[in-house]
Amino acid sequence: MLEVKGLNAWYGESHILHGVDFEVRDGEVVTLLGRNGAGKTTTMKSIMGLVPRREGSVRYNGTETVALAPNFIAKAGIAFCPEERGIFGSLSVSENLMLPPIVAPGGLSVEEIYTLFPNLRERAGTSQGTKLSGGEQQMLAIGRILRTGAKMLLLDEPTEGLAPVIVQQIGRTIREIKARGFTVLLVEQNFRFASTVADRHYVMEHGRIIDMIRNERLEANMDKLHDYLGV
Amino acid sequence: MFTILGIPGPLLFGQLLLGVINGAFYAMLSLGLAVIFGMLNIINFAHGALFMMGAFVSWMLLNYLGIGYFPSLILSPLIVGIFGLILERTIISRLYKLDHVYGLLLTFGLALVIEGLFRNAYGSSGMPYRIPEALQGATNLGFMFLPNYRGWVVLVAIIVCLATWAVIEKTFLGARLRAATENAPLVQAFGVDVPRLITLTYGGGIALAAFAGVLAAPIYSVNPNMGSNFINTVFAVVVIGGMGSIMGSIVTGFGLGVIEGLTKVFYPQASATVIFLVMVIVLLAMPRGLFGKAV
Fold first, then answer.
1. In the prediction, which pLDDT does B245 show?
2. pLDDT, tens digit (0-9, with 9 covering 90-100), for A129-151
3. Does residue B270 form part of some domain?
4. Scanning every residue of chain B, which has its alpha carbon at the shortest distance from the alpha carbon of A98?
5. Along the 295 residues of chain B, how does pLDDT read in single tens digits?
6. How much is the pLDDT for B294?
7. Percent composition of chain A: helix, strand, coil (DSSP 3-state, to 5)
8. Strand pairing class (A2-11; A53-60)
């Protein structure tokens, strides 16, 4: 269970997060929605320890992680899939897949990952990870953190820039890993996609959480959502 | 006696051998520099001074502790490598987030301090280090006499360079190093202790320089200036080969040593500058260097 209380974060002088409060319970898929610049990616990076100056409380399974270095946060069982996907061009596809170390038992095996993402099996011999298409890179980025045994996954805009057919595949993947007991925090601009996978949605604006909408109530709150997101 | 292009055969091959030997040192030193630049983004001006320390430590091991050449090949890189680890942990790591210039200034200053200390203690004239018994003498190859020790240096240098290349390009640890060179924060977010990886990489690069120093001791006399004699050329090698490229440093190091050697034979007036000439030409045509990835 991830509990974030009063999270503040700065990039240099810029105060980006002004006291973010939310929680993600085990087995849930929760999204952070909001306009560009609302602080969604900063929130994820702060949880992961990638924003150097942060204050407040981020508790994962009871352990306070707000002051830890990123490698210790990963060892606590949280894994990160960045918006840019972060596939390494100087590594082959299988080197990319095997790069993140195992942090806990219970991760997927390489065979299980290839079953989930058959395209990756085909492309496993590719010498440069960056030669993969956008969709394949996204699958690789998700696949490699599934291997580590981390149970809490932070996915930053996994469907951005991808074709509808791949977006559907990612949706299936998220539902599949949820069924296997993973917990997912998702940043998404595409709230229609989010509604196909998530249990709850938090809305962010100006570095704060301003609302929480349960997935069942999303349709009923469409007007409010359009206001928040400016669409 | 036969001649090639008007140059007597033994003279040509003698100079060629000299060129290959110099090339071996260029390759080993630029390899360490390239790895350190790739990972740490630091232009390690102290590299020559630490190469010199490697030679001096082997001299000290022999003259103060009676420890000979072959154990020194392991002990000296170990000792100087640990010194490098301490340097990185205490001083150098503070500069990573800053402009390249600061790293250059700091390591340049370190080089001056280290060389100054040794010059103070041991003077500038240099001290002899005898070729170990097992490697003395020469072998008649027909077209020339190959001094055994020099043949040994070239052989060991090639093995060490290829081994380093293999570790970086083909192993799992090497994959972590390559990934950390591309995007260190993300690799750390996966659970890898990147600061420790960086420290060990610096130590490894330094150990490589010190190893070259031990190899150099019997050839060039052990003196505080031996590093600064090499360092300018080594930087040119790294730039020509491509900053951060492992194979680039190896191939360019040996290649430029040979070119320099041949220039000494056919047009000695240019031998001091030919490498820099090559650097200018290569940079004009291929700004990233022969094997370079983006800086």
1. 81
2. 899 999 999 999 999 999 999 99
3. yes
4. B172
5. 677 777 777 788 888 888 999 999 999 999 999 889 887 888 899 999 999 999 999 999 999 999 889 999 999 999 999 999 999 999 988 888 788 788 889 999 999 999 999 999 998 888 888 888 888 888 887 777 888 899 999 999 999 999 999 999 999 999 999 999 889 999 999 999 999 999 999 999 999 999 999 999 999 889 999 988 888 889 888 888 887 788 888 999 999 999 988 888 888 888 778 888 888 998 888 887 888 765 4
6. 53
7. 35, 30, 35
8. antiparallel
- Alpha-carbon distance B198 to A113, whole Å? 31
Structural domain contains residue B290: no
Calculate how close chain B gets to A115, using CA atoms only, in Å: 23
Residue with tokens 């830890």: A68
Provide DSSP, B46-112: THHHHHHHHHHHHHHHHHHH---HHHHHHHHHHHHHHHHHHHHHHTGGGGTTS-HHHHHHHHHHHHH
* Subunit contact B178:A91, Cβ cutoff 8 A: yes
Query: Considering the domain boundaries, does residue B149 fall inside one?
Result: yes
- CATH code: domain of residue B41: 1.10.3470
CA distance B102 to chain A (A): 20
State whether residue B170 sits within 8 Å of chain A by CB: no
Interface check B172 vs A, CB under 8 A: yes
What's at A156, amino acid-wise? D
Whose CA is closest to B246, among B173, B164, B172? B164
Q: Domain of B95?
A: 3-285
Distance, CA of B53 to CA of B50 (rounded, Å) = 5
Q: Evaluate whether residue B293 is within a structural domain.
A: no
Q: B188–A71: do the CB atoms touch at under 8 Å? A: yes
Over residues A96-119, the pLDDT tens digits come to 999 999 999 989 999 999 998 988
List A98's β-bridge partners, or say none.
none
Q: Where are the alpha helices (DSSP H) in chain B?
A: 9-40, 47-65, 69-90, 100-122, 148-170, 172-189, 194-216, 226-241, 246-266, 274-285
| d(CA B188, nearest CA chain A) in Å | 5
Cβ–Cβ contact A91 with B under 8 A: yes
Unique residue bearing structure tokens 């069942």: A216
User: What is the model's pLDDT at position A28?
Assistant: 95
Q: Which amino acid is at B147?
A: P
Contact B221, B126 (CB under 8 A): yes
Here the tokens at position A125 are 């011999």
Extract the tokens encoding A103: 């942090």
Within 8 A of B179 by CB-CB distance, chain A residues are 88, 90-91, 99
pLDDT for A65 equals: 95
In this complex, is the C-beta atom of B167 within 8 Å of any C-beta atom belonging to chain A? no
Please state the domain count of chain B.
Answer: 1
Residue A90: Cβ within 10 Å count: 22
CB contact under 8 A, B185 and A70: yes
Q: Which of B179, B185, B194 sits opposite A91 (nearest CB)?
A: B179
* ipTM of model over 0.90: yes
